[in-house]
Amino acid sequence: MIKKTILLSIVILISTSIVFFSLKFYREVAKKTADILQYKMEISSEVFDRNGDKIANFVGKEYRLYVKFEDIPPKVIEALLSIEDTAFFEHNGINLEAIFRAVFKDLYAMKMVEGASTITQQFVRNTVLTKDKTLLRKLKEVILSLEIEKHLSKEQILERYLNVIYFGRGYYGIRTASKGYFHKELDALSMKEIAILIGLIKAPSFYDPTRNYEYSIGRANRVVTRMYEGLNWITKVEFDDAIVEEPKVFRSTKTQNVAPYVIDEIYRRIGKNLPDLRTNGYRINTTIDLQLQEILRTALQNGHKNITEKQERRKVDENIINKLNGASILIQQNSGEVLAMLGGVSYKDSKFNRVTQGFRQVGSSIKPFFYQSTINMGLSGATLLYDIERTFKYSNEKGEDEYWKPKNYTKKVKGVITLREALMKSKNLATINMVRMVGASNVHKDLIEYGFKDMPSNLSTALGSYATSMYELAEKYTMLSNGGKQHSLKLIKEVSNKNGFIIFEETTKTKKIVSPEQNYLVLDIMRNAVNSNSGTGKRARVNGLDIAGKTGTTDDGKDVWFNSFTPTYQLHVWFGNDDNTPILRGAGGGSMAAPVAGEFYKELVKMKPYIKRRFDKPAGVRTFEFNGVIENFTDVSKPPIKETNEIRDDALIF
Q1: According to the model, what pLDDT value does residue 253 have?
Q2: Rg of the Cα trace of the chain?
């Protein structure tokens, strides 16, 4: 009797201990339920152009594009359940029948040969547990699955599961895989494509369709067969179509970056304020137009190739040839929106953005602003200017006398020419004499008003010694291309968080600086520089399209520019060596940069045949014939009665 009592006590003690420790184990494991419920997936941010086309992704450790349950097609759910967990909507997190079947097979084989994981268990395993095939891990998985089913609906579990699961090639989540393998959203997938994605879950690497296409197709066929023959969830027509289909698959990078200079610039602008940019699912809508970006890329690369071929014919040292680079920016001047940006000819060779980070002398690119200033003071295209050489004496920093004798690009002088011809042909000497005529200090004040920062008050700036970035120069040029109104530039339209709320919008500032009438006088001369056979920008000419332009070339051909605009678009092109050495003897913006603009505009009118082709002439601009030449005048810039050409030397500083 005593022995029975002792034995019973031991049994009770052991049973109680088992129950106690089981409950304790259950509670300890169940605490991880909160970790699963609060599990934060990394969600990559997406960048789009103005038409909704993908530019790139900002990706952290995991590349994931999140999809909500209501946006997952029913066929995706059916395919998943057919092969992974047919009884999903019937069990409470675990499938006892499947567990017993798996245990029997494992015991028979004396090792783990078959799992019995429900979708809920797989979800748990992929969030807080390992994939080790141990009894302890399996017990934890069962407990957590039971707990999760108490807190989440079946639909919530499916949504989280299909977003957390790995599909190979760095793709986390089914939408990511759909975009990566097929370049499609989920609702555009065929039955076979859905089956391929679902088939990947079992072994993402082995069934990777970009590596083992036949195995992937075979696995997909088993999914489709199960849906038709085993469950009757699809029709015979759907089954027959799916079995024979062989979808095209793509090898895509995770970032899918098709405009890297743009993406780098966006990150520089918002990355500091959004430290979770790569992991919290933002949507960045930009002003970029990828179609125009691609046209401009081709034109810039062709221009670069033409210059290097010319260098090779001239036997230029290969080291110098390899230093040549280029950049370009396209904007919509009436809004300031950046449509295309190329910070270099090849991002692979150089990630430095020469549009926003480069700082180069602009050469004669700045001349239109000097002419705008003097025209605002009453000069016109008919005003006569002296195209003659002068020597200027000035004192250097040591107080010593030095001399400056500027020359025209062609080294030739014509004596007296009109202001129109001076700007159209980019005459250095006439420009300097024009500035002296109205007073250098007066022009300098206007240039500061136009936004040129730290502009030195000396005559050499009229010939382009001033240095700035292409981005800032383009912003200043909007005054010339937009009827006297200057726009700040805009690259980012808006940034939305993963819940769709806008958290950032990039705004533009507009400043009216010049009247449309006075602006038109300069615009018309710049148009003449392109459509005239003697204009410096003639190689940018496109039949049927008004283009106004200005070339720019710095000393010894270190920088060549072409700055241009149509009634709708404004384009800047630059070439130069990164070490600031000369490109080539005789290098010029008209011969090297202008053809790039011409090629771009030709392709532009093919792609957008209905764009505005002609500039509007303001009502206040009147046209007269003066000395046999048709010229424009306004109430400010009146037809000249008598030319005095009095030269004023006030405030001439070096």
Answers
A1: 82
A2: 35
